[in-house]
Amino acid sequence: MKRQDVIRVLEWFSKSGVTDLTLNNISPSSKQQINTLAELKTAMENIDISIKHCAQHMVFGTGNPHANILLLGEAPGAEEDRQGIPFVGQSGQLLDKALSAIGLNRDKVYITNILPWRPPGNRTPNGEEIALFRPYVLKHIELVNPKIVVCLGGTATKALLQSTEGIMRLRGRWASIDEINARILPTFHPAYLLRSPSQKKEFWHDMLMIDEFINSEHS
Ligand code: URA
Would you place residue 7 in the very low, low, confident or very high pLDDT band (cuts 50, 70, 90)? Predict the structure, then answer.
């Protein structure tokens, strides 16, 4: 099936209210083969999508593949595209500081994005791209099997929760979806905090919710 046809089918599913697309819907033969992160990476490398051809590197994921906490960002920026690693630019430095304040670092968490390639000019991922990659994100989460998924920013939150509510209302509140076992905590994107430092107080509140969770009997 051509990429445009796949996108049309996904759009049709989305408009029809289908929310639990699995990799089966994209490629029935690949579902059984994706049992490891390496297999998922190969499957994603083979996706033919225009943003891939504008990017330098695919940015898959980094950190501890058995982590209890998975951080989900939007898409690689310029520095991430150069290095092939998520959150290594300015936002990443802020994220590292926040993690370190609650005793975490990249060896203790796993970090990935909704999109593995940088959209040209750092534009926001569009609906077609999100619909195409959501099943891969769900598979990624399933393979890491974290207890918490922290959605960084409105795009990651909307893509995962498929909610019409904005990040201002959703952040700092635990959420869940049927497709994954982990609890989901939406919070602000570090890039937004760099632009609006006054919101760091709310972000810190959400970091403390993570800290509380990992120190509770749930972890
Ligand atoms: N912003 C994101 O959402 N992800 C990255 O990897 C870097 C910046």
Answer: low
180 C-alpha to ligand 1 centroid (Å): 22
Tokens found for residue 114: 């909704």
Q: Are 31 and 21 in contact (CB under 8 A)?
A: no
Other CB atoms within 10 Å distance of the CB of residue 32: 10
Number of domains in the chain: 1
Mutate to test the pocket of ligand 1, among 151, 189, 193, 195 (most ligand atoms within 8 A of CB): 189
pTM (global) more than 0.85: yes
Backbone angles phi and psi of 36, in degrees to 5: -140, 165
Q: Report how far ligand 1's centroid is from the alpha carbon of 18 (Å).
A: 28
Q: Residue 125 is part of which domain span?
A: 3-218
Any idea which residue has 């982990």 for tokens? 182
73 Cα: distance to centroid of ligand 1 (angstroms): 5
Q: Which residues contact 182 (CB under 8 A, 6 or more apart)?
A: 70, 141, 145, 146, 147, 148, 149
Give dist(CA 200, CA 194) in Å, integer: 9
Confidence band, pLDDT 50/70/90 cuts, at residue 8: low
**For residue 165, what are the CA distances in angstroms to 42, 78, 154, 161?**
34, 29, 9, 10
**For 21, which DSSP code?**
-
Q: What is the CATH number of the domain that holds 105?
A: 3.40.470.10
How many other CB atoms are found less than 10 A from the CB of residue 92? 22
